[in-house]
């Protein structure tokens, strides 16, 4: 019998805790000792039911539909939450009415967020009030200054013309009457510009403007701002015209200076870039000759920078004597030069460069050797311009002859080697830091490229920690000690100078 009572009470308790619909318990079905426990469980059922109803209402934001009985001990915390939410709701309504003095201190982290929000709203209201006041003042100032503005326009050094929308009538001029426009050549250009813009924007009603320049028959230049706006109730074009002849001349002078190397008076890298782009657009063939003067540091250190400058200018003089007027010659670095030989085949370009080299080495001999390293790349007629990725992917031999700068440092890295053919031969005769040597080592070790030849390294002499030391196969890697510059002529001349200096020492 005792087991039956326990089983009934346990099932009832389980139903209260876990079932959505609680099974009823007949108290009379229980034996006397178990009836008080059954009544206690019935009280618990009521309390749990109220707790579930209350929590469900709170989860939906309903603060008025249900309130638990006062004696329900299970709902004490829910009652506190209900009271806090009621008060918070009232405070939120006060904030909505503009009372930003409300603060919350009873909801932990939410309190800080609420208080921050009210403070931000208070500051925003203050800012908006200030903006409204300022806008009001601005409107008053604009109205009071309207007459002054018209007077200033009338006296402006800039010419202001208002032209009808069809471009046929001069509606206003701050300087001339309709029959006395200062410059009819420019005026006709204005009309032409307006007609072009009108065809493009004939359906547009909003304000817009464009800036353009004009040149008259006397080669004076004008900067013009043209805008579409309402004039006396009708759409019209307003032109603000300013003569900029003097400014244009100065700009051309500055541009010329910016494109010129100050030491040699030939073009610089900016000039070269612009000219190269012009040539490439035409599709004509061109031979690109890169030249790197040898011994410049030695000459500067031994004979002084003045002699080093003379060394550079002498090279420039020899080149200028041997290139054509249509060729482009520029200094792109301290000892680095580039010649663009237009419509000049590779053999012809090599002959011209050989003549330059001979004259540079042999003419007006000094007590130091003169020589330069060079390379030639031919660009065929109607060539296809490709990006670096395509160049890396299609080339059988890649030879670097570039200067070191922010664009080339680390250019040849893991990603670049991964794009090359497995049969590709890689050469670096430019500057060591252009190549990430660890990435080159891995590319050679993993057979991503066939072989490499290096005349320059990131650190010279080669450091003990250089990863390229691990490669012992000379068919994979050849490293020369920065001697690509050393032509036969240069080395012979250098040895003659050394012998002469030794003889002078012992005399």
Write structural notes for this entry.
With 507 residues, the protein is of the alpha+beta class. The protein has four domains: 99 residues, no CATH class; 91 residues, 2-Layer Sandwich (Beta-Lactamase); 121 residues, Alpha-Beta Plaits; 92 residues, Rossmann fold (3-Layer(aba) Sandwich). The protein has 14 helices and 13 strands. The strands form three sheets. A five-stranded antiparallel sheet has the order 2-1-5-4-3, with helices on both faces. Strands 7-8-6-9 form a four-stranded antiparallel sheet, with helices on both faces. The protein has a four-stranded parallel sheet with strand order 10-11-12-13, with no helix packed on it. Helix 9 packs across helix 10.
Sum up the structure in keywords.
507 residues; Beta-Lactamase; Alpha-Beta Plaits; 4 domains; five-stranded antiparallel beta sheet; four-stranded antiparallel beta sheet; 14 helices; 48% helix
CATH architecture of the largest domain: 2-Layer Sandwich
H and E order = HHHHEEHEEEHHEHHEEHEHEHEHEEH
Mean pLDDT: 80
> Gap between N and C termini, in Å?
135 Å
Q: Report the strand count.
A: 13
Kindly summarize this structure in a few lines.
The protein is of the alpha+beta class. The chain has four domains: 1-99, no CATH class; 156-246, 2-Layer Sandwich (Beta-Lactamase), CATH 3.30.450; 259-379, 2-Layer Sandwich (Alpha-Beta Plaits), CATH 3.30.70; 388-479, 3-Layer(aba) Sandwich (Rossmann fold), CATH 3.40.50.720. 48% of the residues lie in helices and 16% in strands.
């Amino acid at each position: 019998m005792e087991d039956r009572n326990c089983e009934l009470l346990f099932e009832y308790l389980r139903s209260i805790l876990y079932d959505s619909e609680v099974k009823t318990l007949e108290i009379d079905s229980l034996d006397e000792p178990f009836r008080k426990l059954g009544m206690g469980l019935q009280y618990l059922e009521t309390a749990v039911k109220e707790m579930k109803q209350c929590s469900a209402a709170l989860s939906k934001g309903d603060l008025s539909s249900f309130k638990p009985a006062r004696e329900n001990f299970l709902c004490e915390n829910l009652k506190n939450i209900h009271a806090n939410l009621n008060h918070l709701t009232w405070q939120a309504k006060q904030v909505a009415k503009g009372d930003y003095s409300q603060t919350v201190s009873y909801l932990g982290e939410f309190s800080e967020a609420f208080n921050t929000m009210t403070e931000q709203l208070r500051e925003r209201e203050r800012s908006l009030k200030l903006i409204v006041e300022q806008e009001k003042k601005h409107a008053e100032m604009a109205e009071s200054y309207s007459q002054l503005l018209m007077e200033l326009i009338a006296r402006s050094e800039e010419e202001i013309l208002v032209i009808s929308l069809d471009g046929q009538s001069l509606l206003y001029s701050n300087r001339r009457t309709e029959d006395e426009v200062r410059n009819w050549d420019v005026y006709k250009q204005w009309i032409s510009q307006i007609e072009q813009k009108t065809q493009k924007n004939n359906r547009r009603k909003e304000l817009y403007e464009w800036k353009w320049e004009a040149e008259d028959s006397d080669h004076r230049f004008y900067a013009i701002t043209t805008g579409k706006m309402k004039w006396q109730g009708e759409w019209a074009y307003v032109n603000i015209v300013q003569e900029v002849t003097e400014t244009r001349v100065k700009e051309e002078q500055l541009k010329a200076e910016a494109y010129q190397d100050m030491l040699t008076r030939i073009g610089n890298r900016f000039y070269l870039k612009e000219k190269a782009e012009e040539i490439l657009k035409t599709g004509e063939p061109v031979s690109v000759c890169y030249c790197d003067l040898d011994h410049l540091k030695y000459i500067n250190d031994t004979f002084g920078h003045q002699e080093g400058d003379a060394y550079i200018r002498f090279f420039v003089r020899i080149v200028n004597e041997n290139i054509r007027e249509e060729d482009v010659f520029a200094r792109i670095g301290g000892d680095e030069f580039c010649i663009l030989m237009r419509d000049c085949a590779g053999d012809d370009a090599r002959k011209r460069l050989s003549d330059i080299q001979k004259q540079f080495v042999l003419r007006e001999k000094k007590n130091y050797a003169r020589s330069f390293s060079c390379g030639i790349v031919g660009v065929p007629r109607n060539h296809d311009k490709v990006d670096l990725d395509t160049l890396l992917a299609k080339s059988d031999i890649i030879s670097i002859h570039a200067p070191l700068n922010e664009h080339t440092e680390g250019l040849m890295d893991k990603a670049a080697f991964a794009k090359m053919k497995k049969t590709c031969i890689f050469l670096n005769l430019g500057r060591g830091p252009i190549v990430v040597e660890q990435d080159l080592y891995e590319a050679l070790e993993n057979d991503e490229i066939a072989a490499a030849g290096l005349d320059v390294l990131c650190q010279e002499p080669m450091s003990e920690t250089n990863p390229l030391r691990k490669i012992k196969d000379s068919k994979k890697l050849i490293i020369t000690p920065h001697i690509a510059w050393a032509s036969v002529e240069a080395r012979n001349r250098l040895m003659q100078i050394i012998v002469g200096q030794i003889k002078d020492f012992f005399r």
